[in-house]
Amino acid sequence: MKNYQEINAPLRTIMTPGPVEVDPRVLRVMSTPILGQFDPAFTKIMNETMDMLRGVFQTENQWAFPIDGTSRSGIESLLSSVIEPGDKVLIPIFGRFGHLLTEIAERNRAEIHTIECEWGRVFNQDEIIEAVKRVKPKVLAVVHGETSTGCMQPLDQVGPACRELDVLCIVDAVATIGGTPVKVDEWQLDAVIGGTQKCLSVPSGMSPITYNERIEKVLNSRKKVERGIATAEDNLESGPTIQSNYFDLSQLQDYWGPRRLNHHTEATSMLYALREGVRIVLEEGLETRFDRHKKHEKALMSGIKAMGLELFNDFEWKLPMVACVKIPEGIDGDSVRNMLLEQFGIEIASSFGPLHGKIWRIGTMGYSCRKENVLFVLSALEAVLIRHGVKLNHAEGLQAALDEYESVK
Amino acid sequence: MKNYQEINAPLRTIMTPGPVEVDPRVLRVMSTPILGQFDPAFTKIMNETMDMLRGVFQTENQWAFPIDGTSRSGIESLLSSVIEPGDKVLIPIFGRFGHLLTEIAERNRAEIHTIECEWGRVFNQDEIIEAVKRVKPKVLAVVHGETSTGCMQPLDQVGPACRELDVLCIVDAVATIGGTPVKVDEWQLDAVIGGTQKCLSVPSGMSPITYNERIEKVLNSRKKVERGIATAEDNLESGPTIQSNYFDLSQLQDYWGPRRLNHHTEATSMLYALREGVRIVLEEGLETRFDRHKKHEKALMSGIKAMGLELFNDFEWKLPMVACVKIPEGIDGDSVRNMLLEQFGIEIASSFGPLHGKIWRIGTMGYSCRKENVLFVLSALEAVLIRHGVKLNHAEGLQAALDEYESVK
Predict the structure, then answer these.
(1) CA B199 – CA B181 distance, rounded (Å)
(2) Which PANTHER family match (chains A, B) (predicted)?
């Protein structure tokens, strides 16, 4: 075997819709020597993280904790804990991640109902509410920020409508949490899944979730404590249990709650990272942070348009932290991305499915969302496109972005 | 909300059967700024980690990569990817983690067959082989190192017997990998799951696995690429797919393999940690590392016995990195553990199920497995037990351990 050396990773400017640059304070805290999982000093850190997550989710829910896995682990934990075989699940699809919800619900043997709209658009909330009334599902599962298309689905009326119709509303807010309002309680969302590696600027590997007592009631009806640790009062019967052990929220809440029932061994260093990440969000302040994301979005969009490029998602339903840029006719999108990486150390993203080869996606998320990064990506993109023979308005991009920054003080 | 401060974690001497102290080099590498998941600099790190994992697993298998989750995520990924509803699965149970295998297999709708032996014993390999012949399962799932009882199940004859009988042999080596031989190829094990937070001395949050082409054949027969990223040649039919999306190894191997098909976003910082952890293991050398674990085990056992305490697992099938100490009659085991933590900053573990309140478990794993820790835990245990009124041979424990260390140079 080769004699492998120490990691020697180049320093990148990461302007994708995730993973994005990790806040240096978060990187640093991961070097903290670990604690045992039931050490009182550690369970205190667990509780503090739960408390701060409630703040980020804008909720009074008791349950707000991370799943130990990447973002889709949070989605799967909720869907597989709530869906029983044959349950009707309605999924509005407006991009790749709506398909992902469908995939996961299907594997949990749900009866799937979908409504679809063209990639690049979102639904009128009434369309979703009408579908809920028609299908009468147990669960509506919907994406909030669809990074594949750069679109954001409004949900402030969908949540209350679901509540009234007694439908459980489960929302994938992986891309939006910490970058734009996700008002769990005000919008009456029953469960919400966040991501770490996007607007929270924490490495991938955890997925913070929250859910209310309506979801908890379903979990408790499916609860089964593991043999090997169950005590006399626990139900050991093989009933219609949750099909995953790892994602069984009825057990996970006993681990995160006062019973502290052993399940997995909490991912210590990642929890330190998440705690520091949400602490930074709350220190900055939610509104200030959301405004910051909007400010840099505006500067980036102005720069892109002034350069002479076209935005794919220049609509009121644009996801504030993802700019989707149309790849000019005849240009090889991947060649541009490669040159950005090789010459400038900048990473931007391509897209999926029908949009592959048609758009680039530039993220302005979390710690990556700052002035020097926006200005650097604009200047690099201009230079690389000129090298690729694209006719542009030379030097206009940076001027427009600077104008934008000056206009907001 | 409270104004939370920076993490201020006490420094502990962690002598449990996991999680254990993380190697300082591993702690440090997690502070490395991250890379994007498809950055060539990152996919190189993925490949290097796979290569080094093969070394740790002593295998030529193509597939050796981590699942992004704690140890049981590795177990669930293998069981849920391989087991189809109604498949016969045989599980020999000799402690808590055998029950866990049963739990997970059950939730994958297997037809479960178990054989059980008393906690504190293991099976004669012939007993397992006889059961395999009788049950004719598709899968034998078995724990190698059972930390709940401190016992290790020999498998060198079980593996070849399974191969001959065309049974898939899946082994939970979470506790043993990196601490004692786990000869995947020589023992003809079809799939093996390792843990990070034990003998590898990496934080919890990843689970390295390996499997051979016999397992891969099953995966390929159940493969389905996600809608939203599938291309024309991919199968989109809803067949008998794997019931988890997150743990679907047929997709995960396309992400870790040359196709680099997008699935989750790899947990960057944890991967850096794992890479450094396995690099340290290979630098030390497997045999040297296994010998080190045995040396400190011997010193710890000598000390415990010289003190006048009794070992619960003083057998040839003892798990080399876990000493199970009988709690003296009339002593509150948790009170002793609490005093160790509060006065000495040392953590040792209790146990589960029938052994709860009967034994303490002292781990000597990975970075925690070193002379100063062994001597410190012996001296602290003696002092605390004297404070609890236990009659002991004063000062004998340390002398016996020092004798042991001197005898091996």
Answers:
(1) 12
(2) ALANINE--GLYOXYLATE AMINOTRANSFERASE (PTHR21152:SF40), AMINOTRANSFERASE CLASS V (PTHR21152)
Write the CATH number for A351.
3.90.1150.10
**Same domain, yes or no, for A63 and A117?**
yes
Tell whether B209 and B276 lie within a shared domain.
yes
Nearest to B192 by CA among B216, B169, B161: B169
Do B150 and B33 lie in a common domain?
A: yes
Query: Is B291 found in the same domain as B275?
Result: no
Would you place residue A237 in the very low, low, confident or very high pLDDT band (cuts 50, 70, 90)?
A: low
Q: CA neighbours within 13 Å on the CB side: how many for B303?
A: 27
| Domain span holding position B383 | 286-407
Instruction: Please tell me the number of Cα atoms within 13 Å of B237 on its side-chain side.
Output: 6
Please tell me the distance from the alpha carbon of residue B141 to that of residue B144, in angstroms, as a whole number.
10
Q: What's the CATH code of the domain at A221?
A: 3.40.640.10
For chain B, positions 36-55, list CB contacts with chain A under 8 A: 36-37, 39, 41-42, 45, 48, 51-52, 54-55
What letter represents residue B135's amino acid?
V
Residues A190 and A278 in one domain: yes
Whether residue A115 is predicted with pLDDT greater than 70 in this model: the reply is yes
Question: Which residues in B lie closer than 8 A to residue A42 (C-beta atoms)?
Answer: 9
Q: Give me the pLDDT at residue A240, please.
A: 66
Distance from A403 to chain B by nearest Cα, in Å?
31
User: Does the residue A5 lie in any domain?
Assistant: no
In a domain, B11, yes or no: no
Low-confidence ranges of chain B (pLDDT < 50): none
Q: Are B155 and B184 in contact (CB under 8 A)?
A: no
Is the ipTM beyond the 0.90 threshold? yes
Q: In this predicted structure, what is the pLDDT of residue B2? A: 80
CB pairs under 8 A between A and B: 280
> CA nearest A278: which of A87, A79, A26, A81?
A26
Residue B4 belongs to some domain of the structure: no
Search chain B and give the residue with CA nearest A244.
B107
Minimal Cα–Cα distance from A322 to chain B, Å? Answer: 16
Question: Which residue in A52, A100, A267 is closest to B70 by CB distance?
Answer: A267
Same domain, B301 and B357: yes
* pLDDT for A29 beyond 90: yes
User: How large is the average pLDDT for residues A295-308?
Assistant: 98
CB contact under 8 A, B14 and A36: yes
From the list B35, B104, B266, the residue facing A9 with the nearest CB is: B35
pLDDT score of A225: 82
The residue from B248, B282, B316 where one domain ends is B282
Note if the pTM is more than 0.95.
Answer: yes
Q: Is the pLDDT of residue A232 over 70?
A: no
Kindly determine whether residue B226 and residue A197, on different chains, have CB atoms separated by under 8 Å: no
Residue B28 lies in a domain: yes
* Choice among A181-195, A389-403, B31-45, B219-233 with the minimum mean pLDDT: B219-233
